[in-house]
Amino acid sequence: MIRVCIVCEGQTEVEFVKSCLAPYLSRSQVLAFPSLLQSPSGNHRGGRVTVERLVKFMSHQYHQTDRITTLVDFYGFQDSEGRSRAQLEADIRAEVATRTTGYDPRFVLPYVQMHEFEALLFTDPQAFEWVEDGWSDEAKQALEAVTGAFANPEEINNSRETAPSKRILKIFPEGTYSKTEHGPLIAESIGMEAILAKCPAFKEWVEKLQAWGNI
């Protein structure tokens, strides 16, 4: 089994890796495990994502595992400065290369999710029924309207008002949707196969992780 550290920006992503992604990858002889990005103080709080923080953390973790990758939101970068997803990934890889002793480019795979983890949940609006206190026909219709407006969930746009997570919070009554509680449950209910079928960038990343297990 190839050990793959997945650096996550928050607890929601950590739980998603544990409950959905890791079991799926194990079929390809990949032992994936999450590692929560540390705050500047050294605490494992996640959030406040920057290229600098990711690079420092990845460089530190590099020799603790066989392979290392990331699961962070494009929308959450505090220093994106107009860079595209591909540019951010390339910059992360380049910086890790310069700061890591014994660096091998085959073992590092930065991945930035467009535009947020929550976009993956729009693969199947019906799965939001896990938000029991806020679930209704109106909520389902609103979720379906968002899904129907884009070619795939990863294209749901990322302004402060219309990011996937903000759309979810507007659809459900205040206090009924919990990102860390409901997000992983919804993803698990949808299933990896369905998510991969509708989210092309996510699928490409997962297939690269699977390929690590076949080396």
Please give a quick description of this structure.
The chain is α/β, with parallel strands linked by helices and 215 residues long. It has two domains: 2-115 and 193-213, Rossmann fold (3-Layer(aba) Sandwich); 117-190.
Strand count: 5
Cα radius of gyration in angstroms:
17 Å
Second CATH tier, the architecture of the largest domain = 3-Layer(aba) Sandwich
Shape annotation: globular
Helicity level: 40-55%
Number of helices: 8
Pairing-aware structural class of the strands and helices? alpha/beta
Spans of at least 5 consecutive residues with low confidence:
none
**H-E order:** EHEHEHEEHHHHH
Distance between the termini: 10 Å
CATH class of the largest domain: Alpha Beta
Average pLDDT across residues?
93
Largest sheet: 5 strands, parallel
Strand portion: 5-15%
Compute the number of structural domains: 2
CATH topology of the largest domain: Rossmann fold
Structural write-up:
With 215 residues, the protein is α/β, with parallel strands linked by helices. It folds into 2 domains: 2-115 and 193-213, Rossmann fold, CATH 3.40.50; 117-190. It is 44% helix and 12% strand. It has helices at residues 11-25, 51-61, 85-99, 137-148, 164-171, 179-190, 192-198, 200-213; strands spanning 2-8, 30-36, 67-73, 108-109, 112-113. β3 (67-73), α3 and β4 form a beta-alpha-beta unit. The N and C termini lie close together (10 Å).
